């Protein structure tokens, strides 16, 4: 199976690449199969993801699915964003070759990790806008 036009478009012109200063949450995960790494930053206001950016040391399929995932979740509430799966992202790009499905898991897991970071701050009674997200010390491989 070839890459779809949508996958190629997001790979060649990825959306929302970069970092967010003073992010509400940051998540970083690694892909256990290939060792590639994905980092996701979210800015949350009133429970809504108002901005999201990613950086990756990953392949084209990881770049394309992360780019698409950031477009999908921007403007969603935290709960809505948690329901977005790698499968939905891959389908919205017209599908991925089966051997590349594992690459799309990075976006989903990094987003979940960023949301968890945000939630952890809230649970600790911290204001996520005032407490900068730490660089994750350990990479969780998924
Ligand atoms: Fe590693 Fe795609 S080959 S994320």
Key traits:
5 helices, alpha+beta, binds FE2/S2 (inorganic) cluster, single chain, 142 residues, Sufe protein. Chain: A, 4-stranded mixed β-sheet, 19% strand
Question: What would you say about this model in short?
Answer:
The protein is of the alpha+beta class and 142 residues long. It has 5 helices and 4 strands; from the N terminus they run αβββααααβ.
Overall average residue pLDDT = 93
CATH architecture: Alpha-Beta Complex
Helix vs. strand class: alpha+beta
Q: Please work out how many helical segments DSSP would assign.
A: 5
DSSP summary, beta strand count: 4
Radius of gyration: 14 Å
Walk me through the structure.
The protein has a single domain (5-128), classed as Sufe protein. Chain: A (Alpha-Beta Complex). 40% of the residues lie in helices and 19% in strands. The protein contains five helices and four strands; from the N terminus they run αβββααααβ. Strand 1 and strand 2 (37-45) form a beta hairpin. The longest helix has 23 residues, at 101-123. The chain is globular. The mean pLDDT is 93.
Helices and strands in order, then pairings?
Elements: H1 5-12, E1 25-30, E2 37-45, E3 48-57, H2 60-73, H3 78-82, H4 86-92, H5 101-123, E4 140-141
Parallel strand pairs: 1-4
Antiparallel strand pairs: 1-2, 2-3
Helix pairs in contact: 1-2, 2-4, 2-5, 4-5
């Amino acid at each position: 199976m070839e890459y779809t036009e949508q996958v190629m478009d997001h790979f060649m012109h990825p959306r929302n690449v970069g970092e967010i200063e003073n992010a509400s949450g940051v998540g970083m995960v690694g892909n256990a199969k290939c060792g590639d790494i994905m980092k996701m930053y979210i800015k949350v206001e009133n429970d809504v993801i108002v901005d999201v950016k990613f950086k990756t040391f990953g392949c084209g399929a990881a770049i394309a699915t992360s780019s698409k995932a950031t477009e999908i979740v921007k403007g969603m509430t935290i709960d809505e964003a948690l329901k977005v799966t790698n499968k939905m992202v891959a389908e919205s790009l017209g599908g991925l070759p089966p051997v590349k499905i594992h690459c799309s898991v990075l976006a989903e897991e990094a987003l979940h990790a960023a949301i968890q970071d945000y939630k952890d701050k809230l649970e600790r009674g911290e204001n996520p806008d005032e407490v900068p997200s730490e660089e994750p010390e350990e990479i969780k491989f998924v």
